[in-house]
Write a structure and sequence with these properties.
Layout: H1 3-16, H2 37-55, H3 68-85, H4 95-120, H5 125-133, H6 136-150
């Protein structure tokens, strides 16, 4: 499995759904004028692409070869992503969901070291999928993606 695929899974799940709070990170958007729906969706996609490119290098993408430094780099990149999301002023109709999105991504980042250990320890795809989708942050992202979709937002964040 590849680190980039985990990031892509997390942000792609966003397009399918998310919901639930969490810990960490500033979720207070700047006092700028809220973005339009189209501008918001575009800003999220460009931010996800930037982080995806940061993580998408060819070295050490195999979980069995990931070091603690690689895991920490992923966690740091996810927190950088949420910090950038915190600088976006979403449309008023999704401001609460945007804050929940930041919290869920922070939850996922915080859980990632444990997920990575489980993924390194198995060669069984079902165990790997269970480790990933059993994570609280991923479950929150799935629920939130559904909430965004109900409001007509397509968060294509697959970097």
């Amino acid at each position: 499995m590849r680190r980039l695929l985990i990031l892509l899974a997390a942000v792609t799940l966003l397009a399918a759904g998310c919901g639930g709070g969490g810990s960490g990170g500033s979720t207070t958007p700047p006092s700028a004028k809220p973005l339009t729906k189209a501008a918001y969706q575009a800003k999220l996609a460009s931010t996800a692409k930037e982080i995806g490119q940061q993580l998408g290098g060819p070295k050490n993408q195999d979980f069995s070869k990931m070091t603690a430094k690689d895991v920490q780099a992923f966690v740091d990149a996810m927190h950088a992503f949420t910090a950038k999301l915190g600088q976006i002023t979403p449309p008023a109709e999704v401001a609460g969901l945007h804050r929940q999105l930041i919290a869920a991504l922070n939850d996922f980042a915080d859980e990632f070291p444990g997920i990575a250990e489980k993924l390194k320890a198995t060669k069984d795809p079902s165990t790997a999928i269970a480790a990933l989708f059993g994570a609280k942050g991923i479950q929150e992202l799935v629920k939130l993606g559904n909430e965004f979709k109900k409001k007509g937002y397509n968060l294509n964040l697959n970097g």
